[in-house]
Amino acid sequence: MNLKPLLLAMTLSLTLAGCMVGPDYQKPAMQLPMGFKEGTQWQRAVANPQGALNSQWWLAYNDPVLTQLIQRSATANQSIVAAEAAYRGAQAQVSSSRAGLWPTLGAGLSGSRGVGGSGSSSGASSAGGVENSVSATLTASWEPDLWGQVRRGIESSSASAQASDALLAGVRLSISASVASNYLALRQQDIDIGLLQQQQQINQQLLDMIQAQYSQGTAANDQLLQAQDQLSTVVAALQTAQRSREQYEHALAVLVGEAPSQFSVASVAQYAFAVPRPPLSLPSDLLLRRPDVEAAERTAAAANAKIGVADAAFFPTLDLTAEGGYRASALGSLFSVPNRIWTLGPALAATLFDGGAREAAVQQAQASYDQDAATYRGTVLSALQNVEDNLSAINHLHVQADTYQQIYTRNQQLFGSQQAQLKAGTVSQQNVLTQQLILLQTEQNLRDTQGQLSQGSVALIQSLGGGWAITP
Q1: Which of 86, 394, 449, 455 has its CA 20 to 30 A from that of 431?
Q2: Which residues neighbour 204 within 8 Å (Cβ) at sequence distance 6 or greater?
Q3: Distance between CA 186 and CA 267 in Å, rounded?
């Protein structure tokens, strides 16, 4: 047996194994600003998707019920379950791609009995024209990755798996933020319902007083109509608040993986909204660790590797095959030296003409990369806009909340003054109730703004890709 051709082929394949055609990946160029227009000057970000996966930003809101709901959603929400399954599939694809680097081994055992031709083959029984044959073989084949086609495939599938991992982080962040937003909105409705119920009672008292005055001829019909309208307006607003609370509760049920009919959140009359402010100096990885940005960048990396896969089709392929075993006419004498068989041989193949199919495949891969690179840049720009929008909202809501706090404080003083004058007999009970009604309305404005501010902080955290180290 002459092993020189096989050894030469193996030497050549090992020499070329380090070659990989196609462009090496470079992250698409993207000029990031040093700071945000609506916020403090923050440092540039560096991708870190694991930060978003491990961040428990909701603890800054100091609410055990909220924490419990988010923890339940992390295990029961079907969107997260689906994203986890997709990630497992992507990991399996990486393992499948890596398998292409290794030889394929096979084994076989066969036997046959039949009528042969005029003669009989060597090693086979031909008594009565009947031939027996039994064989046991072991085969091996290997296609060396001469031009990096397999390795580029591994590179592409690995990047796709990382993109899937980032998408999973994005789904987790999105679901937890949705739970927090809906929960805080529900608590805002709890407060509104309580304040509107108090306003309804006061409006009813005022209506009763004006009806008595109208019956006595001391109040005009217009006053009576206005009092009736004010009561009806509050009743209608109360219905809106109650409907909204029920819908927020239904949304929370689905987010934690339960049917709305089997889920409820107890009402809380007094709720303190927490607003974790971003520190003056934020970690440099807050923006580009956003899962959607990381996923877009990894998708571009996967597309870049596929260009190399397409390029490799222009080069010849080398197959190394080997087979060895035994063949005999009887099983008892199968494993003996005279019955041993073997074959070895390399095969080199190349496509000479395909009508431009390979060139089209390369162009398609290049176009896909250009598209994914543009998508990445667009995702970064959208992320910047999202952060700017939420910073703007937070800034203005802070001013609005401070203003409503001042109005509420002044109305507390006015209400206290009215109560003192009532005791002195200088104002009527109707005046005190009217001032109390105004106080409740200003409190509702304040509490609504505080609720919106708390929900806005959730949106800001989500837009940054997760929470930050901060003392609640």
Answers
A1: 449
A2: 231
A3: 9
Lookup: tokens for 196 = 């509107």
Reference 466, options 263, 286, 207; nearest CA is: 286
| Res. 167: pLDDT tops 50 | yes
Give the number of C-alpha atoms closer than 13 A to the C-alpha of residue 209, restricted to the C-beta side. Answer: 16
What tokens were used for 450?
């505080």
CA–CA separation, 173 and 167 (whole Å) = 10
In total, the chain counts a number of residues equal to 472
Q: Three-state SS for 239?
A: helix
Cβ contacts of 375 within 8 Å, gap of 6 or more: 296, 299, 300
Cα distances (angstroms) measured from residue 150 to each of 69, 317, 411: 45, 12, 74
**417 contacts: CB under 8 Å, gap ≥ 6:** none
Residue 411 has pLDDT above 90, yes or no: yes
DSSP β-bridge partners for residue 318: 348
* Residue 46 token pair: 């560096």
369-396: average pLDDT:
89
**Residue with more model confidence, 435 or 48:** 435
pTM for the full predicted model: 0.81
Asked if residue 54 has pLDDT above 50, the reply is no
Q: Give residue-wise pLDDT tens across range 116-147.
A: 554 444 444 455 567 888 888 888 888 787 77
**Helix pair angle (429-463, 357-424), 10° resolution:** 160
The Cα angle at residue 206 between residues 205 and 209, in degrees rounded to 5: 90
Write the CB contacts of 41 (distance below 8 Å, at least 6 apart in sequence): 34, 35
Burial label for 226, CB within 10 Å (0-12, 13-18, 19+), is middle
Q: What is the mean pLDDT of the chain?
A: 83
How many helices and strands in the chain, by DSSP H and E?
A: 9, 4
Q: Distance between CA 464 and CA 396 in Å, rounded?
A: 19
What pLDDT is recorded for position 45?
Answer: 38
